[in-house]
Structure formats: structure tokens, C-alpha cells
Design brief:
Elements: E1 4-9, E2 12-16, E3 29-32, E4 38-44, E5 50-51, E6 64-74, E7 79-87, E8 90-91, E9 94-96, E10 99-101, E11 104-108, E12 111-121, E13 128-135, H1 146-149, E14 156-161, E15 176-178, E16 186-189, E17 200-202, E18 206-213, E19 219-227, E20 230-232, E21 241-245, E22 249-256, E23 264-272, E24 288-289, E25 293-296
Parallel strand pairs: 17-25
Antiparallel strand pairs: 1-2, 3-4, 4-5, 4-6, 6-12, 7-8, 7-11, 7-13, 9-10, 9-12, 13-14, 15-22, 16-18, 18-22, 19-20, 19-21, 19-23, 23-24, 23-25
């Protein structure tokens, strides 16, 4: 089985491998870190059937969907998670126990099984639904340490196709392109084409997001930004940027960080192959989390 690369800092690769479990969580995605620890997660439909990552949802002209998050884990710590949902790469509200959330936080113990139901409104002509599960969303180590930071960069995605609409995607143009250095990464830096791990920076700073393609075919990406896990727009007002990256190349996108009233967390997420979700293509069911870092309020 091919391993799919998430954010990579020089000489370090993070990998998530999907396994098949032949029990109640059959076909759920499993993030395994050792022989003794694992996280299995996925969604069930309103009839209790497991939804395969990358599958097409059968809405039958409904404008609402009801899903159940199923998470089973054996890990070495009690852990906090955050769930967000995006429709066509825009964060949407969803209901849990009759209450609306833009992001839903829940806590787990070391050995735990969690289930909760949620409801989402799906606008007509929507093309893709994405769930993102974030581990330890509001945690950062007290200092810049690669071993402590790396696990915070990945996100756990579930992506679904809604409609097969072939609307033309408007890709970013006039971006800087590079061929030197590794090309299989997504990262954020305050210097263009720089591989340093960003731990913190100031509000209003210029930031460079770089996406690479180490494959042999062109790959397109949808990129979204989050400040404390609420989606924020790019400087021109766009909520999503689409990039098309040639094989063995990287593209760099510059943007300016927002004002913040207090120190906050910032992260970008890139979705490969937007609107081309396919259960037989692991790349199309992934989401790549970039460097999570702190935006410092200048008054502090």
C-alpha cells in the first residue's frame, strides 16, 4: 500500500497509512503510530452504514444530511479533538445535539470509543463535503521543537463527492515557481522558498505558502486558511485559492497575516485534486496540513 506524505520538514516525513479493520469499524481510516496504539475514525450515514472515504453521497434531493462520527482509539494520552466541516472548501455550520457549531470540540480518554450525530445543510449544486478532525487543536509546545511540533501539523480528513459538476476552476496565475530543493511538501515560512519550521510570527507579517509536486503528473490544490480554526479569507477576499503545480516543481503564494486581539493559532490546509474525490485514489481523499504556528499580537 502506498504511503501518502503529509507536511515534511527537511529529512522528516509524516505518514498516515490507512488500514482495513474487519470489525465494527470496518473501512474506517486508521492512523497507527505503533503496534499498540491506533486511531480509527470515520462516518456513518443515517442508516448506520459506514461511508467510505472518497465515496459519492446519495442525497436524493435532500438539503440536509445526517452523519455519525465514529472514533475508536488506543493512545498514550487523554486527548482533545476538534471537528470542522467544509462544503466546496468553505467552512459551514453543523448541528450536534440540536446546537449549531462552526467547530465542535470534544475530549477523549486514552482508550475510548466516541460517537455523536451531526446534521449539515447542503446547498444545491454543491460538489464536495469535507470533514477535518484536528488533534490537540489549541496546544503548542512552549518552544520551537521539531519532535513536538510535527504531530500537530497533520489533520485527519474524510472527503466526499456530492455532485459531478464540471465548473471551471480559476487557478492562481503569476506565482513564483521553483525547481530546486524538495518538491513534495507544503509549508509556510516568512521567507520565500525557505524550509525553516515557523513557530511564531507577528500580526500583519508577510507569509509565503509553498506547495510542491514530486509526482509525474500535474496536481491541482485547493488551499484554505484558519485562524484559531475559524476560516479566514486571503487578502483579496477569496476564501479558497486554487493552484496547479507541475511535476517536480513548487509554487509559492504570498499573503499577509490578519490583525489579532490576542495570540492565536494559524494553519493552512491544502486539498489535492479538488472536486475529483475518488475512493480508489488516496491522493484525492487526503488533506495536507501546513505548519501550525502562533500569530503574536504586537501589543504583547
Amino acid at each position: 500500500m502506498k504511503k501518502t506524505r503529509f507536511i515534511a520538514i527537511p529529512s522528516v516525513l509524516l505518514c498516515i497509512v490507512t488500514f482495513i479493520y474487519f470489525n465494527r469499524i470496518n473501512n474506517l481510516n486508521t492512523n497507527r503510530t505503533s503496534h499498540d496504539t491506533y486511531i480509527s475514525y470515520g462516518f456513518l450515514d443515517s442508516d448506520g452504514n459506514i461511508l467510505s472515504n472518497g465515496s459519492k453521497l446519495d442525497l436524493k434531493f435532500k438539503e440536509k444530511i445526517n452523519h455519525t462520527l465514529d472514533l475508536d482509539q488506543v493512545i498514550e494520552e487523554n486527548r482533545e479533538y476538534l471537528l470542522i466541516a467544509l462544503v466546496d472548501f468553505k467552512q459551514v455550520m453543523f448541528k450536534v445535539d440540536g446546537k449549531y457549531y462552526s467547530c465542535y470540540k470534544f475530549n477523549t480518554s486514552k482508550s475510548d470509543h466516541i460517537e455523536f450525530n451531526l446534521e449539515i445543510d447542503i446547498p444545491k449544486k454543491s460538489k464536495e463535503l469535507d470533514y477535518i478532525l484536528i488533534r490537540k487543536p489549541y496546544y503548542m509546545p512552549h518552544k520551537k521543537n521539531i519532535e513536538s511540533l510535527l504531530p500537530l501539523q497533520t489533520v485527519l480528513p474524510i472527503r466526499f463527492k456530492i455532485n459531478d459538476l464540471n465548473d471551471e476552476i480559476k487557478y492562481e496565475k503569476m506565482l513564483r515557481t521553483y525547481t530546486e530543493g524538495p518538491s513534495d511538501n507544503i509549508w509556510i515560512s516568512n521567507k520565500e522558498n525557505n524550509f525553516d519550521l515557523l513557530y511564531e510570527t507577528n500580526e500583519n507579517d508577510d507569509i509565503f505558502l509553498t506547495l510542491g509536486n514530486d509526482g509525474n503528473e500535474v496536481i491541482d490544490y485547493a488551499v484554505v486558511l484558519f485562524n484559531n480554526w475559524e476560516q479566514v479569507e486571503f487578502n483579496d477576499g477569496d476564501m479558497t485559492k486554487f493552484l496547479k503545480v507541475n511535476p517536480k516543481e513548487k509554487q509559492s503564494l504570498k499573503f499577509n497575516l490578519p490583525d489579532v486581539e490576542e495570540d492565536t493559532y494559524f494553519q493552512a490546509i491544502a486539498f489535492p485534486l479538488p472536486y475529483k474525490v475518488d475512493p480508489n485514489d488516496m491522493m484525492s481523499t487526503n488533506a495536507f496540513g501546513s505548519c501550525k504556528f502562533i500569530i503574536k499580537n504586537n501589543a504583547n
